[in-house]
Design goal:
Layout: H1 7-23, E1 26-33, E2 39-45, H2 46-55, E3 60-66, H3 73-87, H4 92-108
Antiparallel strand pairs: 1-2, 1-3
Helix pairs in contact: 1-3, 3-4
């Protein structure tokens, strides 16, 4: 795993997420590619979801499947992993961490985890 975060750092990340959550809360959404039927569940804030949905409306159907995501240690780890993936998009270990923590957040919120063979 590329992500290495101690408890103090995790607490600081949770605090920043909580502050961001006051402006635009986190959601879990499902995207289904129109051409292939591939299903992907992702986490983002509501404003980013609206932007993503608008930008990709021609090629994917997107719907919010959980409107409020609680701030947890797994969400904080996901946020760190997502930030690392944005900075290092070609690092396989970083991308694996992002997938791991995305699925951890999905699971703790009683949503299906993403798999390689998800089809609608």
């Amino acid at each position: 795993m590329a992500l290495n975060i101690n408890d103090q750092q995790l607490a600081a990340v949770r605090e920043r997420i909580d502050q961001a959550n006051q402006k635009s809360h986190f959601v879990i959404f499902q995207s289904v590619e129109k051409a292939t039927g591939k299903v992907l569940r992702l986490i983002t804030d509501i404003e980013s979801f609206r932007t993503i949905q608008e930008q990709h409306q021609a090629d994917a159907a997107m719907v919010i499947i959980q409107d409020i995501v609680p701030i947890t240690d797994d969400l904080a780890r996901w946020a760190v992993a997502e930030n690392m993936a944005a900075q290092q998009p070609n690092d396989a270990a970083v991308l694996e961490d992002l997938e791991t923590y995305t699925n951890a957040v999905l699971t703790e919120n009683h949503q299906a985890a993403n798999t390689d063979d998800d089809q609608d």
